[in-house]
Amino acid sequence: MTVIARRLAGHLARGVVMILVVATISFFIVNAIPGDPVAARYEKLLEQGMSPEAALQATKVMYGFMPSGSMWQQYLDYMGGLVTFDLGTSLTRPGQSVVSVLADATKWTVLPVLIGTLVSFLVGVILGVYAAIKRTGKLGDALAISGSLLHGIPQYILAMLLVVIFATLIPILPPDSPVDILFEPGFNAGYIGSLAEHAVLPVLTYALSAYGGWVLAMKSSVVTVLGDDFILAAELRGMRRSIVFRYIARNAILPLFTILALSLGLLLGGAVFIEKIFNYPGLGLLLIDSIQLRDYGLMSGAFLLITAAVIVANIVADLFYTVIDPRVRSGEESR
């Protein structure tokens, strides 16, 4: 078995165990909430005239497990539904399954956060290299200060500043909602243009809030690589500066790929404040609404999805680092 296959098998096994643990915790949290929301829903259905059997079945559909029987039996019903991707029905959206609601919200979160993260990564890495190489000059100082400043501003403050500037003082961009309701949804120029226009401020917020971290991380990594022996050897051999620059950038960027993969995994849960400010119907806003409205099935489903995304990101980051860094492969093969 190859190094990558061994690592993949181990990570998948640990990932499944972690997801089951999170699902278990979510189940018991729902049952531990004061007032027992599952039993409360069951009692309300009985008050509305349902028979006990129909109320039991309706509650099972909503929460994914039966409110009768022992706690162990309820837990087994819940985990059985999880295996078949049946997380119940949303209480606040009658007739819609938790899975369908989560899928609809996720598509609004992934694209803006993904674009913002990748743009900030590319710009931050390039400017981070220059910040390290020119660290004794004014350019290096300016780049380091800009990175520190943007890295220290909370996302929600940055989002509100952008709204004030580009939607109030200079009203050139829409402040909220994902699309103008005047356009018919579909693959047409008006609708796509409206989607892009409304996504500018959220994407810009994601990019600016992450930019500082990438600049500072890349600068630190480059400064570390500059002290390595192979850089000194390359300079003593008289290699062209452009080749030495490529050596530096290629080795310094390796640790950042792991951080990038983890950032992409966290993107599902990291957009809570920004989506609330811009009224963007993504997973972050859905999670806030489910907590406020006590939609426990939707709440536990959102937590589970975010956890699964982080676990998958960890697996991808580790495997990717094994592929791009031969030192890791050689270390594994020697065991």
TrEMBL record:
Swiss-Prot/TrEMBL keywords: Membrane, Transmembrane, Transmembrane helix, Transport
Record-linked CDD domains: TM_PBP2
Domain (ABC transmembrane type-1): residue spans on this chain: 106-317
Topology in the lipid bilayer: Multi-pass membrane protein
Broad class of where this protein is predominantly found: membrane
Keyword Transport in record: yes
Record's subcellular location: Cell membrane; Membrane
TM segment ranges: 12-33, 110-133, 153-173, 253-278, 298-321
Family: Belongs to the binding-protein-dependent transport system permease family.
Protein name, UniProt field: ABC transporter permease
